[in-house]
Design goal:
- The complex is a heterodimer.
- Chain A is an alpha/beta fold.
- Chain A has 14 helices and 13 strands.
- Chain A folds into two domains: 161 residues, Aspartate Aminotransferase, domain 1 (Alpha-Beta Complex), CATH 3.90.1150.10; 244 residues, 3-Layer(aba) Sandwich (Aspartate Aminotransferase, domain 2), CATH 3.40.640.10.
- In chain A, helix 8 links the parallel strand 5 and strand 6.
- In chain A, helix 5 packs across helix 6 and helix 12 runs parallel beside helix 14.
- The longest helix of chain A has 30 residues.
- Chain A starts with 10 loop residues before the first helix and ends in a 9-residue tail after the last helix.
- Chain B is an alpha/beta fold.
- In chain B, the strands form two sheets. In chain B, strands 1-7-6-5 form a four-stranded mixed β-sheet. A three-stranded parallel β-sheet of chain B has the order 3-2-4.
- Classes of the chains: A alpha/beta, B alpha/beta.
- At the A-B interface, helix 1, helix 5, helix 6, helix 10 and helix 11 of A face helix 1, helix 5, helix 6, helix 10 and helix 11 of B.
- Chain B: InterPro entries: Aminotransferase_I/II_large, Ethylene_sulfur-biosynth, PyrdxlP-dep_Trfase, PyrdxlP-dep_Trfase_major, PyrdxlP-dep_Trfase_small.
- Chain B: This is Probable inactive 1-aminocyclopropane-1-carboxylate synthase-like protein 2.
- Chain B: GO terms for molecular function: pyridoxal phosphate binding; transaminase activity.
Chain lengths: 437, 383
């Protein structure tokens, strides 16, 4: 499957190097020619990376305040790899409040480390033997494939979702228990041992939010088959449409299988600081927490970052009165702007009022419904200096879907959408027989 | 038609269920045995006269303890055997209490032995009976528990000059705590030298392969190479005697390396050893203490200062700030290598071993402010 044999590397080293060489092409191109208002106005506009660039002003002000700059010897020394207690206490309080847990969450169930990628890696390693698998509804955030594979050697079994609404479904790409059962059966019949299920809620790239009833169903399914459930709630505070009604899995009155339910969160998305590298695990299972902590020596957080995060999470007033309202307002405005542009272009899309992205249907712009055509369209966008994410990177089984990120300043969105329009209007002259939307 | 792997997996699943059933049976048997013993003790109490009974009672209590210890030990042994597939299980000898008439010393010793065996196992009890972790997850947990008990005890009860004068003082962890107020790396930057080692082990070796390491060496190497990467360490033992072969204590010579390498090939025939260069091996040089040479009479030469390297594409140098700058909590390590393939492969782990942008920025400034080499003389004053 992979091959870039090197006389210097082991076989797995060669596979690992392949990941680096091939998977990052678009982003490497982007980083060599980044758009900048003053220095590089013809550079590439990034509508592909899911980052919230709207609130740097609020964050930089808060992170520069004097309470963030304290230094103590213990912060510069080898820590408890689970994370400093003061931070885990703060995380427990924070999650209790924002996840609306029925009972206060406990610091001993918290582990902190340098990001959710590391958490996926550690969980894969401690829950699975090499070659075992997790179920994951697809389309999903594709980088998770690498996170569980690099060290853990764990594979993902996709639960493919369809854009077509059938049967009792109420929306496109809906996850149902039947689909989960089918995927599990398929894996078993191929001799693949499935150990867990990954849920992302709010979902990436769809922006879907699971209702409490749905969450309960998925968790019951997992319990029936003794599967671990890893719930990635990294976008939980990025639900900018109030009517959506988001519920964390930790808000459920009773978890069907608390010993096999593991919740992940990070500041990367909700606080727009993906470069700071801070993620947390909450689980009642002490075996899992300890085993993950043991691997945390490789995913250690700087003591300074731990201190700053504790200060940030503790500041409810700032979060509730300054940051969240402003952040949601800006996200909503950006979302409205891009949605209107898409509607004006006649492009169908899914929108759920959560996350930083819109799942866009460009199928009618493909002369043929193949991933090669999808790739060609993606390249045309890149050549026209706008970076989107193509659906195959999310294991979407239907060619033609793209993820478009809108959490950026208006002038960049404006320029990006102009370039998208240029490509599509050029393209749509080619696909004359495609049905209108 | 189910494929072979599925069949094997199904058998394993059946064995697993069998473990659970048999474990339940054993626990129930244990409970029944305990109840029988207690009933016997009570009966004996009623039947015998008082003085003799007191002696026998004490003996019976010792018997019971030893017996329970043996049962627990066998249960844990059984669980372990179940994991390896060896199913020979002997139910406890129900007539053990007949040994009450044997000389007390021997009896006491055997009960002490079973207690010892039991206590040795009890540290790993939790992880051995975890049903949630994979086998490698259990290994990781067990290694953590057994190796960090002392460290965790220390963490929970640290000395403080005002708040906890009875706490532990740590003279075991290698940290430079006297240069706290002091405060360019080459190809790849990760969050600590452990991470650099781990990533190197992943890209240079396949699971089960090995590195040669002169010993005594830092005990943590086994974690760096083993926990994630499953790479073995082959020791090259150095001697504490000055002999013809050693000009000074624990001298590392090429002969010793060759000896260790050949020894490894015999002892671990399935393992391919990666070590010094004559045998076409990679070399990893950890220079993490390079700026902590506090005795000016000792000349330190970094491998990077050498005019020419025998094989630059297989020479990889590691450094970090944990020791030389006394900031082990900062989490920063770097790899320098001229080998671009190794660098790219290690960069794949950049996401999993990432350093915060803020940390990178601060460190940049710290390293640019290059006053600190002279300050390491503070270490010299303590010796």
């Amino acid at each position: 499957m992979f091959s870039s044999d090197s006389p210097y590397l082991s076989s797995r080293g060669s596979v690992i190097k392949w990941f680096w060489d091939s998977a990052e092409e678009g982003y490497r191109t982007y980083h060599m020619d980044e758009y900048d208002e003053d220095k590089n106005p013809s550079g590439i506009i990034n509508l592909g990376t899911s980052e919230n660039k709207l609130c740097f002003d609020l964050l930089s002000r808060r992170l520069s305040q004097s309470d963030m700059l304290r230094l103590e010897p213990s912060l510069l020394q080898y820590p408890d790899w689970r994370g400093h207690l003061f931070l885990r206490e703060e995380v427990a309080r924070f999650l209790s409040f924002y996840c609306r847990s029925p009972a206060p969450l406990k610091p001993e169930n918290v582990v902190v480390l340098n990001g959710c990628a590391s958490l996926f890696s550690a969980l894969a390693t401690v829950l699975c033997e090499a070659g075992e698998a997790f179920l994951i509804p697809a389309p999903y955030y594709g980088a998770i494939t690498q996170h569980v594979y690099l060290y853990g050697n764990v594979r993902l079994v996709c639960v493919y979702l369809d854009s077509e609404v059938t049967g009792l479904e109420t929306r496109p790409f809906q996850l149902t228990v039947e689909k989960l059962e089918m995927a599990l059966e398929g894996a078993n019949s191929e001799g693949v041992k499935v150990k867990g299920l990954i849920l992302i809620n709010p979902q990436n790239p769809l922006g879907d939010v699971y209702s409490p009833g749905e969450l309960q169903e998925y968790l019951e399914f997992a319990k029936r088959h003794e599967l671990h459930v890893m719930v990635d709630e990294v976008y939980m505070l990025s639900v900018f449409e109030e009517s959506v009604g988001y519920h964390s899995v930790l808000s459920l009155e009773r978890l069907p299988d608390p010993q096999r339910t593991h919740v992940m969160w990070a500041t990367s998305k909700d606080f727009g600081m993906s470069g700071l590298r801070f993620g947390t695990l909450y689980t009642e299972n002490q075996d899992v927490a300890t085993a993950v902590s043991s691997l945390c020596r490789y995913h250690g957080l700087s003591g300074l970052v731990q201190y700053q995060m504790a200060q940030l999470l503790r500041d409810r007033d700032w979060i509730n009165q300054v940051y969240l309202p402003e952040n949601h307002a800006r996200l909503k405005a950006a979302h409205i702007y891009v949605s209107e542009e898409l509607r004006a272009l006649g492009i169908p899309f899914l929108s759920r009022g959560a996350g930083f992205f819109i799942w866009v249907d460009l199928r009618k712009y493909l002369p043929a419904a193949t991933f090669e055509e999808e790739m060609l369209l993606w390249r045309r966008f890149l050549d026209n200096k706008v970076l989107l994410s193509f659906g195959q990177a999310f294991e979407c089984k239907e060619p033609g879907w793209f993820r478009l990120v809108f959490s950026d300043k208006t002038h960049r969105l404006h320029l990006g959408m102009q370039r998208v329009r240029r490509v599509l209007e050029g393209k749509s002259q080619v696909a004359e027989d495609a049905p209108s939307c | 038609m189910p494929s072979m792997p599925y069949g094997q997996m199904r058998d394993q699943a059946l064995r697993n269920r069998s473990i659970h059933t048999q474990l339940m049976e054993m626990v129930l048997s244990l409970r029944q045995t305990m109840e029988d013993h207690i009933a016997q003790l009570m009966t004996r109490h009623q039947q015998q006269d008082l003085a003799l009974e007191k002696q026998r009672h004490n003996q019976a209590v010792r018997d019971q303890e030893a017996f329970l210890g043996l049962l627990m030990f066998q249960m844990l042994h059984y669980l372990q055997s179940g994991a390896t597939g060896d199913w020979s299980f002997q139910p406890p000898d129900a007539s053990m209490d007949s040994r009450v008439d044997v000389g007390g010393g021997q009896q006491a010793q055997s009960s002490r032995q079973t207690r010892q065996m039991f206590y040795q196992r009890s540290d790993f009890e939790d992880t051995f009976i975890s049903y949630d972790l994979s086998n490698r997850g259990i290994d990781i947990s067990a290694l953590y528990h057994s190796s960090f008990q002392d460290y965790n005890t220390y963490q929970g009860n640290k000395y403080h000059k005002d708040k906890n004068t009875l706490g532990y003082i740590n003279l075991g962890t290698s940290e430079n705590k006297i240069c706290i107020d002091l405060l360019a790396e080459r190809v790849v930057v990760l969050n600590g030298c452990s991470s650099v080692f781990s990533a190197l082990a992943m890209v240079l070796c396949d699971p089960g392969e090995a590195f040669l390491v002169p010993t005594p060496s830092y005990g943590g190497f086994i974690f760096r190479t083993h926990l994630y990467a499953k790479v073995e360490l082959v020791p090259g033992h150095l001697e504490s005697q000055v002999t013809e072969a050693n000009a000074y204590l624990f001298q590392l010579t090429v002969d010793k390396l060759e000896q260790a390498l050949l020894g490894a090939k015999i002892e671990y025939p399935q393992v391919r050893v990666k070590g010094p260069l004559r045998y076409n091996l990679h070399v990893i040089i950890d220079e993490i203490y390079m700026l902590s040479v506090f005795d000016e009479a000792i000349p330190f030469h970094s491998v990077l200062s050498m005019e020419s390297l025998p094989d630059p594409n297989k020479t990889h140098v590691i450094w970090g700030t944990s020791k030389d700058l006394g900031i082990s909590g900062f989490r920063f390590g770097t790899l320098y290598t001229r080998n671009r393939e190794v660098a790219s492969a290690v960069s794949s782990f950049g996401y999993l071993h990432s350093i915060s942008g803020v940390t990178q920025y601060k460190l940049c400034h710290l390293l640019q402010d290059g006053v600190w080499p002279k300050e390491s003389c503070r270490l010299g004053k303590l010796v």
